[in-house]
Amino acid sequence: IHAIAKELRRCGKTKSLSKGKCIHDHLVATGLHNDLFLSNHLIEMYGKCGKLEFARMVFDGMEKRDSFSWNLMILGYTQHGHLKEALRLFTEMAEKTVVTWTAMIMGYSKHGQMNEALGLFKQMPERDVVSWNAMIGAYVRQGRLQEALDLFEQMPHRDACSWNAMICGYAQQGHLQEAFELFKRMPTKDVISWNSIISAFVQHGQLDQALQLFEKMPQRDVVSWTTMLSGYAQQGCFEKACEFFRNMPQRNVVSWNAMLGAYVQQGCIDEAIKLFYEMPQRSLVSWNAIISACASQGKLKEAFNIYNQMLQQGIMPDRVTFVSILDACTQNADLAAGKQIHNLVIRLGLDGDQYVQSAVVVMYAKCGTLDIARLVFDSIPQKD
RNA sequence: CGAAUAUCGUUUACUUG
User: Fold this and answer.
1) Interatomic CA–C1' length for residue A114 and nucleotide B15, angstroms
2) Measured from the CB, is A292 under 7 Å from any atom of strand B?
3) pLDDT tens for residues A246-266?
4) Which of A53, A54, A180, A341 is the most exposed place for a label (fewest CB within 10 A)?
5) Global pTM?
């Protein structure tokens, strides 16, 4: 049972829906699907894969539910922006835990509903350090540093996450010195603290300082290495970037993506394509990176080719993919392809995104169909 | 009915604008 749970967890993390379904079928066949513990894992797996209807079917079909079942169902909704559904369950839930409240706060915060998040935070019966951190993170995301700092000082106990969130907040708002001061004042730094401050210096183009910290930190993880790699790439220090990539003790898909980005930034598109095919795994970011690189370098044939491979492999494009591939259509004045992509955009419900919308309008306009461009343009509720 | 070294929430790196 424990092994199955772990496997389901992995399916959720990697969004392997088909594998997860397989396990589900197997559980049904062996009658284990009534197990509370395993059902909770099924909810989580479907939730993480974005299959909320399936998650809900499991949830509704359970004879017994514990707070984990409810929390996981609510989390599934919040993480995919279905805040109304989440709120409905939240309201229905009898014994909310601090996790329930925090999950809702996170959901609101990640979708820009700051007032709702704050309202819940004020209302919750008790708060632990994670809820405080979640609220600090909410303010940080809004760039409201003073209010984040107020909470940081008000909270009964601060842990490393609290400090790290503040450090990142200052760095993101361009207050590198304040971030560094906080870092230095921090009592017990963890690897994320070090990575955060290194990233802060990288974001401000101070690679020398970043490197000093990188060398000084007690232990480095794959994030530390990747941060440096991508920092050098962004500065155009291609050789340095390669050196970090070669020397890193282990690589994950993000490190590979960063290296891909280094080639692209260098203008070595063919090398980038080669690397893309050689990577041990590809994530959606990898596909987006290579498609966008091809499109912006005028390798339109290649862009369409890779985009089609992506669809064939059953990988769901997102808004980033569409912005890039629509740009390729625009350059080619390829109306047929553009229309087809526009259809897919609508089918996937991404036609509400302002960047996708503007890419669609430009595509139709460049293809000589100004009337359609105008039609789409007029359908945009608020324009920038 | 109860128990449990079982499952949930917060902070850092990669792609478009």
Assistant:
1) 27
2) yes
3) 999 999 999 999 999 999 999
4) A53
5) 0.91
